Amino acid sequence: MADRALNGAIAVTRFGLGARPGEIDEASHDPVGWLRAQIRREGGDQPVSAPLPPLAPPVAVKTAVLPGVQPGTMAEGTMQAGAPVPAPQPLQPANTLDFGVGQPLPTMQVAFRHFVDYQQARKGAKDDPELRRQATAPIFELAAEEALARARLAAETPAGFRERWTLFWSNHFTVAAKNLDTTVAVGPFEREAIRPHVFGSFAELLLASSMHPGMLLYLDQAQSIGPGSQAGLRRGGGLNENLGREIMELHSVGADGGYTQADVTEFARALTGWSVSGQRDSGVPSGGFLYRDNFHEPGARKVLGKTYSDEGGRQAAKVILDLAANPKTARRLAHKIAAHFVADDPPPALVARLEHTFVQTNGDLGKVAETLVTSPESFQPQASKLKTPYEFIISTYRAAGFSPRNPAREVVGPLNTLGQRPFGAPQPNGWSDVAADWAAPDAIVKRLTWAQGFAAANTPQTPPPDEARLALGARLTPATLTAVTRAESRPEAFAILIMSPEFQRR
Amino acid sequence: MTRTSSSAVAMSRRSLIASAIASGMGATFLGVAGGAAAADFAKKKLVVIIQRGACDGLSLAPPIGDPDYQALRGAIAIPADKALKIDATFSLHPKLAATYALMQNNQARIAPAVAIPQRIRSHFEAQDLLETGGAQLYSSTTGWLNRTLQAAQPERKIDALSIGAQEPLILRGPVQAQSWSPGGRLNVATNRVATVLMDLYASDPLLASALATGLATENRIDVINGGKAPTGGDVKAFANTAAKFLTAPGGPSIAVLSLDGFDTHARQGAADGQLAQRLMLVDQVIDGLRLGMGEEWKNTVVVMATEFGRTAHINGTGGTDHGTASCMVLAGGALKSGGIIGDWPTLQGGRLFENRDLAPTLDVRSVFKGVLMEHMGVDQRALDNMVFPNSAAAQPVRGLVA
Q1: Cβ A279 vs Cβ A266: under 8 Å
Q2: Distance (Å, rounded) from C-alpha B166 to C-alpha B258?
Q3: Residue A2 above 90 pLDDT?
Q4: What is the dihedral of CA B8, B13, B17, B20, to 10 degrees?
Q5: Does pTM surpass 0.90?
Q6: Which of residues 315-374 of B touch A (CB under 8 A)?
């Protein structure tokens, strides 16, 4: 029984995104079953641009200060002197928050129109900074809407493991907002190329990621031209190796995958022609995948010892399918999955099980996920992973039973400060998954600062010891329980809880 | 009143942790100058800047006098009439005006053909090697600056500070470094939660050590900057604040900061454009450091390096792909005057590495070692064996520091 309680807490906090009130009890009946039930063929959940419910009860009006927030903007009308402090209202049970109803977020082509509009507007704006600001504003609004929708899904979903598994793959195939065209693409990329495939075959996922306009723009593939292609011969231009290299190094076999510079260049030649449609391409909407035969380098290519005949745009797809099936890809991903979910230095037996499943099922990610959650090594009691800032913020919202509603103040701002700008990984290898990278002294102080601001504004009304048990279940240590119980106020108790070692780790 | 007691708590825990780490290691490696020399070295300041994403050295310091430069670079060649001329071969990028002014004053130098010891074209592996200081990949998991701090203990305690929200690998290791980044501040003096957490973190050394050091830094920022911190966008103010940490009484001797966005595969630009924007930030950082160091600039060396350079030839998308050698920049009032550091391999067809990249003539470790030896007083045996393991063949560059 004790084991089941601990495994329930581990299931929810290590494999899920942290416990909403009641979730650990629910999972503790059958921790493995609770996790397995979240694996489904159709992939991850889709965030939606949900109409926001009325503002949360302004229970903490007296101390409603988040860093940098003007109090008057939080709960209009309740802040004037003499206004009665509203009675605390009961929390809305988290499982009644319905994130499934709402407007779908824009597709890649629709989002790309914002970029096309910007380009048009810029011509008119010349050097007028105000006009330029107006032209870029819709792009940043869209990005903020994406960040909020994704954070709300994570904060509200009853299938936390499904979302964490999705976020793992989204980080594996990083597309970051590095300029305006990629800023409109980051949300659609994750929703279209990643989420539908996370429990399908890895080959499909790799191909979907490699072909999505978001990736083609982010890794500079769209304009890569074969020197011997029609376009190359007529107007020059040439190869760009970026996507070819990163598919091998980051997305599949890995840097020790045995390829050479010659393999990278040959793969880059095979990829020529994979592009993104723009305004000049008549008859197709802008912002879609477009194979440009006149960019494609003619001829057979030799990659990792195998020759690929020239089949136009299919040539690169065949290389990608072989990279997906390469045993080095299975080994590397098995290690990366185990390291993400269980420990920076993962149990070798778990890595071996994952690799075995990956190879036996030809990269069936649903089966790999099942192996992960059914392996005994996954439930080692030691919680050695340090939450990333995103995991920390999301699990805090879940513990409080709230969901963020203001993109700038509650999602983008804090994540920037904590060093994890939404959709903003600084390099194509994505966010670090190693505890030491997130435990710089300044970073821990910033977490504490945010924690206290959050607690002041959003303290749950549950008695603090109960709150601690709801958040951590059997993982709660006597030391933390004592500290929470002895706190001077509810905000202080909540801040201690979310900064406790067992909440920071998973 | 509360301030003193609270910071005393933090400090005593911190020393406790430090001694626990030291005894656990059992290492008492005497690697730096002691005695009278130590007092001189104690004044010295070192700033290491890592340019992430592989900065194009051929644009940072364009070899405009090299006969092959123009043809290789085409549209991204820096025009001779805009570049800031250093000598018959080299210029600086036009956005590096403040750095150029330092150079005119013998306070900046370039090393135009430097590379890490292994030929790697993966950003992430190459950054690992640059920061671990290993002779080959995966030979070390700690950073060479952290091992520099270790080499100094227990004779001389050298502190280091990383600037930014994440801990860089170069400082990772058993000696706890400080860190700072702009953003919301915490009043340590009145923060009860911080005190409670210091007790709870007794079971978690990683968090305990980080929080103790972070709180001590918070105390300091109030003192040196009047509680104000620059916003993230103002790079010069940011560098200026970093410099104030270094010059504050009892401040660290070493600071590390990273700049990213150098991976210019497409639309790299020439005198203006994408890379020019990043180089402008580089120039502002160096200038901000100079301003912030004030009088102490004379005791300062800034050394800037990237994981590798970029292809000599412009690629098909107006950019450059992953290459080999790139250009290091050294700046600071403590530098010795002198010309270009290392040999220039030229851009002739036969001289290019693998017929595509600028060939390295100097090991990046040789430059780091030269600075650590002459500027920080680190013993050469420690440099050869501990700070940069198995690096005896990469001799320190001498004569960099006055």
Answers
A1: no
A2: 10
A3: no
A4: 100
A5: no
A6: 315-317, 319, 321-322, 354
DSSP annotation of B398? P
Q: How far apart are the C-alpha atoms of B216 and B201, rounded to whole Å?
A: 16
> Parallel, antiparallel, or unpaired for β B160-163 and B178-180?
parallel
Find where tokens 């599949």 sit.
A252
Q: How far apart, in whole angstroms, are the C-alpha atoms of residue B38 and residue B46?
A: 15
Residue-by-residue DSSP string for B100-125:
HHHHHTT-EEEEEEEE-SS----HHH
Contacts of A242 in chain B (CB under 8 A): 263, 265-266, 321
Q: How many CB atoms within 10 Å of residue A378?
A: 25
Retrieve residue A104's tokens.
């779908």
- Interchain pair A241, B315: CB under 8 A: yes
H-only helix segments in B201-338: 205-225, 235-247, 274-293
The most distant pair of C-alpha atoms in chain A lies apart, rounded to whole Å, by 80
Residues on chain B touching A500 (C-beta within 8 angstroms): 197, 200
pLDDT digits (tens, 9 = 90+) for B140-178: 889 999 999 998 876 788 899 988 777 889 999 889 888
User: How far is CA B15 from each of CA B11, B253, B274, rounded to the nearest angstrom?
Assistant: 6, 18, 46
* Minimum distance, in Å, between the CA of residue B302 and any CA atom of chain A: 22
Q: Which residue of B has its CA nearest to A480?
A: B200
- Give me the amino acid identity at A316: A
Angle, in degrees to the nearest 10, between helices A441-458 and B205-225: 90
Q: Which residues of chain A have a CB within 8 Å of the CB of B196? A: 483, 487, 496
